[in-house]
Amino acid sequence: MIDTVRLSLMIGPVVPVPAPEVVLDALSSVEVTTTDTGPTLFQLTFGLSHRSPLHTLFLLSGGGPVLFLRVIITVTVNGTPTVLVDGVITDHQVAPGADDGHSSLVITGEDLTALMNQQDFSGFPFPAMPAEARVAILLAKYAVLGVVPLIVPSVLIDVPIPTGNIPSQKGTDLAYIKALADRVGYVFYLDPGPAPGASVAYWGPRIKIGIPQPALNADMDAYTNVKGLTFRYDSQKNKIPTVFLYNELTKAVIPIPIPPITPLNPPLGLIPPPPSSLGDLRPVDDTLSKVPIPQAIMIGMAKAAQWADAVTGQGSLDVVRYGHVLKARRLVGVRGVGPAFDGLHYVTRVTHSIKPGSYTQEFGLSRNGLLSTIPAVIP
Questions:
Q1: Could you tell me what percent of the chain has a pLDDT over 70?
Q2: Among 126, 330, 316, 310, which residue's Cα sits nearest to residue 226?
Q3: How far apart are CA 47 and CA 33, in angstroms?
Q4: Which of 72, 167, 291, 320 would bridge 10 by S-S if both were Cys, CB 3.0 to 4.6 A apart?
Q5: What is the pLDDT of residues 303-332, one digit of tens each?
Q6: Distance (Å, rounded) from C-alpha 77 to C-alpha 327?
Q7: How far apart are CA 57 and CA 60, in angstroms?
Q8: End-to-end CA distance of the chain
């Protein structure tokens, strides 16, 4: 590995331990992909002989809610450790090599949400509990794995009266938690770290505010730290979600357009794209007109934030030259691509590719307008 980059691999059931030397010697590449909404995926590739003990170590374990191999991948760049993924192995694949004595073992997996999607607990009751309390109870099962809940209460505090309705779980823990998040326009994901063996289970709105990461510099001579950075502006993408509410007293349908700008989704671009059309939410959820008004508005706000991101970008960087690990679900500054796209962007996707002597990242960006809203980007 590069002098300024160190890779740490931990493997084991429930509480993983540092991988033995035979495993590290056989490791040829690591790939980890993180998106802003979905699970974090990883892939480990090993070069090994037919008599290697890795066949037994990996192929005879995993695949169930009780018997599984947990994997923690951590990188240290310039003395700062970053946990890339804390997950479990879900698939194994062996491919023959160029000669008869060697082959490659490819291990794939995803973060600990895979364990939340194993067992169907449909019918489990939650009497007199708001959605936040139900999420907290479900996540408490996974405290033994170091999962710490971070729950943001919604403005819709709906506590069903037990004499009238007792809500019950539908599907697996993961499916039910995500369904509760969709009801109020929230997202749910696991953020590994800050220490190995710990993960933050975030249930709340998609946040596009905070301290930006070190800037991505393009076409700036010696200060350039990215390559292949391109941007696209799609003026037809922006729509205004419209919630249609049915008033039982007047028997009238009331349309409520939802603006894309909210405190948690501030304008990252000075000139927002003009709305191309009104987006009707009824094809997305035909029961939306029957829910309380605050809940319908929150769902519309979440959709508005997605439809307003008309500016998208993608590129790659060398981590040694960048000097940091770029993270998804956070802001980052961009310089050197022109006044239309310079400024702050939201990182939607990051793919880490680690090989001996190489550590690169491919990333995706999004923004809801052209021109920067800040006078300068902090390097």
A1: 78
A2: 316
A3: 21
A4: 72
A5: 666 667 889 999 999 999 999 999 999 999
A6: 13
A7: 6
A8: 27
Is pLDDT at 342 greater than 90 in this prediction? yes
Rounded to 5, what percent of the chain is helix, strand, coil?
15, 40, 40
- Measure the CA–CA gap between 345 and 215, rounded to whole angstroms: 10
* Integer Cα distance of 175 and 264 in angstroms: 25
CA distance 156 to 168: 19
Residue 250 burial (CB count, 10 A)? 8
Closest CA to 316 of 361, 353, 280: 361
User: DSSP string covering 86-112, please?
Assistant: EEEEEEEEEEE-SSTTEEEEEEEEEET
Please calculate the CA angle 14-178-309 and round it to the nearest 5 degrees: 115
Could you tell me the two tokens for 289? 């007109």
For 163, the token pair is 């004499």
Question: Which tokens is 70 given?
Answer: 């947990």
CB atoms within 10 A of CB 205: 21
Q: Which residues pair with 29 in a beta bridge?
A: 45
